[in-house]
Amino acid sequence: MTVPAPPTRQPFAPTTPVTGGIGESPRRPDGSLKVKGEFAYSSDLWAEGMLWGATVRSPHPRARIRSVDTTKALLVPGVLAVLTADDVPGRKTYGLEIPDQPVLAWEDVRYQGEPVALVAADHPETARRAADLVAVDYEVLDPLVDPEAALAEGAPPLHPKGNVLRHIRIRHGDQAHPADVVVTGEYEVGMQDQAFLGPESGLAVPDGEGGVDLYVSTQWLHVDRDQLAASLGLSPDQIRITLAGVGGAFGAREDLSMQIHACLLALRTGRPVKILYSREESFFGHVHRHPARLRYEHGATRDGRLAYVKARIVLDGGAYASSSTAVCSNAACFAVGPYDVPSATIDCTVVYTDNPPCGAMRGFGAVQTCFAYETQMDRLAAELGMDAVELRVRNAMTTGSHLPTGQRVDGAAPVAELLQRVQAMSLPTDRPAGSLDLRTLPGGVSNTTHGEGVRRGVGYAAGFKNVGYSEGFDDYSTALVRLSVVAGEPQVEVHTAAAEVGQGLVTVQAQIARTELGVERVVVLPADTQVGSAGSSSASRQTWMTGGAVKAACEAVRDRVLDMAAARLGRPAADLALEGGVVVAADGAGPAGTAGIDLTDTSADVLIPLADLLVEELVEETREYHHRQTRALAPETGQGEAHVAFAFATHRAVVDVDTELGLVKVVEIATAQDVGKAINPQAVEGQLEGGIAQGLGLAVMEEIQVVDGKVRNPSFTDYLIPTVLDMPPVRLDVLELGHPDSPYGLRGIGEPPTISSTPAIVAAIRAATGRPLTRVPVRPEHIVGVPGPEATEGPPATAGRAGPPEEAAAGQERRDPDAEGG
Amino acid sequence: MRVSFTVNSEPRVADDVWEGESLLFVLRERLGLPGSKNACEQGECGSCSVYLDGVLVCACLVLAGQAEGSEVVTVEGLASGDDLHPVQEAFVEAGAVQCGFCTPGLVVTTHDLLRRNPSPTDPEIREALAGNLCRCTGYEKVLDAVRLAATRGVWTDAGDDPGHGLPSRSGAPRTRGRDDTRSRAEETGP
Amino acid sequence: MEFLQPRSLPEALAEKAERPEAVPIAGGTDVMVELNFDRRRPEVVLDLTRVPELGSWDRSEGGVRVGAGVTYTRMVAELADDLPGLAIAARTVGSPQIRNRGTIGGNLGSASPAGDCHPPLLAVGAEVEVASASAGTRRIPIDEFFTGPKESALAAGELICAVHAPAATGPQQFAKVGTRNAMVIAVCSFALALDPSRGRVGTGIGSAGPTPLQALEAEEFLQGELSSEELWESRGPLGAAAVARFGELVAAAARPIDDVRGTAGYRVHALGVLARRTLTWAWGQHRTGRS
């Protein structure tokens, strides 16, 4: 482990212990409000005179708009505005990487649910009824829904530059590497949805001077603001965004949803406008995880060393670009997995189709490839007659390994150790024979088995991805830290634009401030655009980047305060330190050179309390934190130092499968993950456990089913996410191996739990059933091997699910929103 | 139409209610009680869980008029001033709150479970909470929170008490949030 | 929209007669979903939760009369002895919140092929008691009640008042396949009722046809086996071949389709498995004298 450079001041030892610093798990500052139901989410906002907005959406995946007639809608009493694309004053499109997505469609509609018009009214029901009266004359066209067809020669171009949004080519090593054993496979990953619980929502309030204040759930305030400015025809400082309470994100709030819409309506009507999506609308209102088709070939020597990996990956990007170009790059960079391989040939393409747009979801391309390469590794092990973990250990990356892009892995890469740790954990005991608690069996209280047909299986997987943004993007975060005296006590305020989406970023910011400034009382101010950008709450980057910014700003504040104290006391600032709210003589024998601060040594002398030093003054500093530079990937070879750092995790899954019905109960999931440094151990566990739940969902139940461009299951009735009866107990082994150039040696943690959990579960199901299972989510049909449209051994020939949309037939059940009448 | 009912022990009246509004909409948009959440509005997620005449229900599935004359208890009715209910306190302490959108529903459901079954087994906890979806936590710390609340032995009597607004509680003192001063100073949120 | 809240059954029937288009609502677990999701905008809603006659159940005429307003929670807690198959089915419904509100009358009124109450009621040969202000009360045999997907034999102006079912004389079972361990709409379901007092076997199939179905051939086959081998009295073992044949006949009775929840092929396969298993359990209960 590399020892980081010593800090500018000696680490201090506190006189009175400061609780709630880094390494502890202090109470969330927003916890009490949340459990009382008093925490204001974006969907809870209310303003005097508020109007409700509604969105008119295309029912067709592909159509030409001949005309939009708003006259009837405008006549509805209570309706104050009906807007179309003509009413967008600035840039008529937006987008994270390529602004190709219309604010409101005109001419062409490219996906089912694409917004076409907006209504503002004084009651949400009025707005909905008026939206129904907006008459859009569509020329319905055939959608292009098969990514392979979109790639083929002569395919109709869905966008001016054609259907290939990005193609990454990676050529690593000697392309003709000899191998004794070759395994090929085709795999498919279905479309997963982030399914955050808090619906898309926000409140736009016009300021009366042509500008607007927006309170919204989002992941990156400043990028929202920039897109808003472009489309509203305003300058950025005319738009002020404040983060409202966010009900989860997982990537789905990186792209705009209702932000421009609400602001347009607010500026037009001169009144506050709230837009709140229903759950059904939410499924159409955000991007999804890219469905993928992956073809792999692994070659290995007889003694189990990887010789080469060839991968061809096609990602269905859907109608608009979103962050697809970055997802494509990620999938390609991490297409081999955390293994050393002398030769890699990777082609990854993301294409436009008329399917729903796809973009960021936790794992960001590395999820799809991990399912494929980990399945390949299991098959290779079987061919070689080797233990599946042993094969992985034998090829595991270490510090100093190189990615297929040529980048050297610096920092810890404990892949072998993480695998061995999950393997060494004792297995859960078998269900006690004879006792019949249905809840411990597959199918649960639905009473499908009393033990008949149930077999247990165990599976392993390893995965990794980058932390932070890549390919030369100069990502940074900004923090303002202010130290003052309030009611006779020193207090720190931390102000960033960083989006707290549930992960606990507000807690971590306070912990860092406590540790760096030795002040117990820290207030984390609401995130808004009055301070510089914090970047996105994504890519497992926030604790690193915003934590780094907060730390840097605190250090700057500390330097100034100690200079003030030095002047007051007539002692060199280098001899002083801050702890417990006072200035003390620095303990020269403190733990130098470590990222950790020893808060237990109480031996230092008090020289002057901060309250006496500062009195009325406040000390405020703003700092930006940038990570080290990264570089683009070379176009022909994909070589380049594209990433900041990497995070590794392994999983072991134990499942019980009812092999006759194909029903799965996950019995236990164990994981080992290196987090560098656990800033808040309880929050770290929460991220690992939550990520595993999403991995479990992709493994056995979650899929947005799209047929001919239409979403068949836009509801929680049929887009199933795991309940507490589906999630098993989780066993965690968290390693803190540090990192050379991050704050406190931490590394990002949020995504690895979703990456290798899915293939571990599917491997366990294979072990229990002997089925190849080349597609996720695994369906009962696949497990029992019943002939049918999707019960094929390999991926189906066409994208989407089988079966015509039917009205009045079986499977229409009492809560089916598709049912006609009652 | 006008709807009158008791919410958290207070008589409340909502006027100009559209007949098709749910109890959830009335609570959130007309009575200033947005604590119950609207994650799905079809009874699939439990984020709108409230007590209706002492019975745990999804408020999104109750038509406003059906609550006429009833006693409703929401998450906002469980704390006592600044003192969190032990179930609420346990959720915060155990790390069961991440984004928190599911939390009000889970708190009310846990409250209902523990007053009927003060020492539930894990399978009983899971079956009782099966109607509350959480997307952030993976449920592990939610289970920790329920177990923690149960060990604090807050209820001395199990069994239904339909017809009462607030379930009875033992005389045990309410647990104050640890370090209340800091909690107040740090509480953020718009 | 008009909201009507009658306080008695006669009042409810009178209002329904006056406004036949009125949509009845009790627990709201179906109707409110349609309302919230903007699928339905009834002109009139008829709230039945204040009609006391609908909310109780009692034993009568060698059977049980379950008021339409009885909830799933109560079915689980109170009907496990008299209607064990129905109680098992009720426990598989939704969540505690849904079970506390959803009612047997609502389940029948929606008449979905996936309704969880329907297969156990078919298996015991229940009757649905309906009434109208004009025509009074009548009973509809359960196997005539479902006329199409989400369509029932209810005539205009009629409300469902109760369900009549014989009390169990033997073991009953219910099993439901779903792709999650909680809160699922059935991919397919199967109910079985053994009636040793009359030597009869009853079945019910859910989510595998345009309506809930019965497996009549399977019932006849098994009844024949049990009586010809005198197994009802001897409580001897049921041969594997007979169990397998029963499963085949149940599967053959299904008329499923492919949809978002599953394929037709899987449903047929799964029903065979459920039929074999539930029969094995029920017969095992009969052999040991347990119900």
Structural write-up:
The complex is a heterotrimer of chains A (822), B (190) and C (291). Chain A has 822 residues and is an alpha+beta fold. Chain A folds into 3 domains: 43-142 and 213-235 and 253-276, Aldehyde Oxidoreductase, domain 3, CATH 3.90.1170.50; 292-430 and 437-469 and 634-798, Aldehyde Oxidoreductase, domain 4 (2-Layer Sandwich), CATH 3.30.365.10; 476-626, Aldehyde Oxidoreductase, domain 4 (2-Layer Sandwich). Chain A is globular and about 75 Å long. In chain A, strand 4 (93-94) and strand 5 (101-102) form a beta hairpin. In chain A, strands 3-7-1-14-11-12-13 form a 7-stranded mixed sheet, with helices on both faces. In chain A, strands 9-17-16-15-10-31 form a 6-stranded mixed sheet. The longest helix of chain A has 28 residues, at 542-569. With 190 residues, chain B is an alpha+beta fold. Chain B has 2 domains: 3-77, Beta-grasp domain (Ubiquitin-like (UB roll)), CATH 3.10.20; 86-151, DNA polymerase, domain 1. Chain B is built from 6 helices and 5 strands, in the order ββαβββααααα. Chain B has helices at 23-30, 86-93, 103-116, 122-129, 140-151, 180-186; strands spanning 3-7, 10-14, 49-52, 55-58, 71-73. In chain B, a hairpin with a 2-residue loop joins strand 1 (3-7) and strand 2 (10-14). In chain B, helix 2 packs across helix 5. The longest helix of chain B has 14 residues, at 103-116. Chain B starts with a strand and ends with a helix. In chain C, 38% of the residues lie in helices and 22% in strands. Chain C has helices at residues 9-18, 31-36, 72-78, 84-91, 96-101, 104-110, 118-123, 142-145, 216-228, 231-234, 240-253, 264-288, and strands at 2-4, 23-25, 44-47, 57-60, 63-67, 127-132, 136-141, 146-148, 151-152, 159-166, 172-177, 188-195, 200-206. In chain C, the strands form 4 sheets. In chain C, strands 4-5-10-6-7 form a 5-stranded antiparallel sheet. A 3-stranded parallel sheet of chain C has the order 1-3-2, covered by helices on one side. In chain C, a hairpin with a 3-residue loop joins strand 6 and strand 7 (136-141). Chain C is globular. Chains in contact: A-B, A-C, B-C.
> At CATH's second level, what is the architecture of the largest domain in chain A?
2-Layer Sandwich
Specify the CATH architecture of the largest domain in chain B: Roll
Q: What's the domain count of chain B?
A: 2
Q: Can you tell me the CATH topology of the largest domain in chain B? A: Ubiquitin-like (UB roll)
Q: Residue-averaged pLDDT of chain B, rounded?
A: 84
Largest sheet of chain A: 7 strands, mixed
Q: What is the CATH domain class of the largest domain in chain A? A: Alpha Beta
Supply the number of helical segments of chain B: 6
- Structural class call of chain B reads alpha+beta
Helices and strands of chain B, in order, run as: EEHEEEHHHHH
